[in-house]
Specification:
Helix content is about 25%, strand content about 30%. The protein is elongated, with a radius of gyration of 35 Å. The N and C termini lie far apart (about 95 Å). The N terminus is likely disordered.
Length: about 220
């Protein structure tokens, strides 16, 4: 068996000393350089690059603000432009909370004229404790719309009169809700819902702030 490093083998011959041979140079026997060294260096460089990238991703993850359980900062939006468009297109009188009760801020707004539950207006809100609420109107069947929006919150049999509207109180495992059904000939949407993770009392504050939205003249 031959021992490397210039030590005599048990056959009496001497192995060439290649310990000092630089990468890429011919060895003492005139053959090609020892294979594997450039590949090893490339793999090492790739691993170092990946480590730098992962470190950068970790830093971004750690400094990202977390304001809600979903892990994403919830922005405040100006819903006026969307409300203007919706008020002109909706087949009912669009409602908005103006001014917003103290502590609430809008986070998103959308109007879908061909939604699953008819022409649908929705405004999402959050309060200072990051609790959620939504105002929604639709001109489709009320029962499936309310069940979907409130995640099966059930009518309690209680009702509240806020302003000129009568609201049925719903309670569920996740959301509470106030539901108002418009009578025949009313300019309001057939169904208007206020729902969220807050109490019916907080939802009633939003109900008291609802007014018809009047877009500026075109």
């Amino acid at each position: 068996m031959v021992h490397h490093g210039g030590v005599a083998s048990d056959t009496g011959t001497t192995a060439p000393d290649t310990a000092g041979t630089p990468d890429g140079a011919d060895n003492a026997g005139g053959g090609p350089a020892a294979p594997g060294r450039p590949a090893t260096k490339t793999v090492r460089d790739m691993m170092l690059s990946m480590a730098v990238i992962m470190a950068g991703v970790l830093v971004l993850f750690l400094v990202q603000p977390f304001e809600n359980p979903g892990g994403r900062a919830v922005p405040t939006v100006d819903f006026q432009v969307e409300a203007n468009t919706a008020a002109r297109a909706a087949p009912y009188r669009l409602l908005v909370p103006e001014p917003l009760p103290e502590g609430w801020r809008p986070t998103s707004a959308r109007y879908d004229r061909d939604g699953e539950y008819g022409a649908t207006w929705r405004l999402n809100l959050t309060d200072e404790d990051e609790q959620y609420a939504a105002l929604a109107q639709a001109d489709g069947p009320a029962e499936p719309f309310v069940a979907w929006l409130t995640e099966e919150a059930r009518a309690t049999g209680e009702s509240r009169t806020v302003g000129s509207r009568e609201w049925a109180v719903h309670a569920g495992d996740k959301y509470h809700a106030l539901v108002s059904l418009a009578g025949p000939g009313s300019p309001d949407a057939p169904v208007t819902v206020l729902t969220g993770t807050v109490s019916p009392d907080r939802l009633a504050e939003l109900a008291a702030a609802l007014v018809p939205h009047r877009p500026p003249a075109a």
